[in-house]
Amino acid sequence: AASAQRVINPLADRVHNIASDKGWYDGSSASSLPELIALMHSELSEAQEAARHDNPPSEKIPDFSGVEEELADCIIRILDASAFMGMNLGGALVAKIEHNLTRASIH
Which of 63, 66, 61, 27 is CA-nearest to residue 43? Predict the structure, then answer.
């Protein structure tokens, strides 16, 4: 758990600092958790659209597919929100994975 916190939480801070520097928090409604969650959802919708269109290469990062780009965008949004809200996402991630290990198979 500690190693995930040492990786995930500083990465979240970096992503949030970039978003702040680029103006995402300059007087916008993006400072509410529901708005931040909506932005995460929009990235997943964009990934779904890319998948529906045979997952073409990304226009912005052409070494990757559209789905890869949009899933990365969603992770970026999640990291940004977690840092902005002061969450311990790294700790929660490890705790949830450990919990999932104790669950019964769905098959």
Answer: 66
CB atoms within 10 A of CB 41: 12
Per DSSP (E only), the strands in the chain are none
**Are 76 and 70 spatial neighbours (Cβ–Cβ below 8 Å)?**
no
pTM assigned to the model? 0.91
State the virtual CA torsion across 72, 75, 79, 84 in degrees, nearest 10.
100
**What one-letter code names the amino acid at 82?**
S
- Res. 69 pLDDT band, cuts 50 70 90: very high
Helices 89-101 and 2-21 meet at what angle, rounded to 10?
140
pLDDT in tens, 78-94: 999 999 999 999 999 99
Residue corresponding to tokens 């899933």:
71
Name the β-bridge partners of 57.
Answer: 65
55: alpha, beta or left, given left = phi > 0 and alpha = psi -120 to 50? left
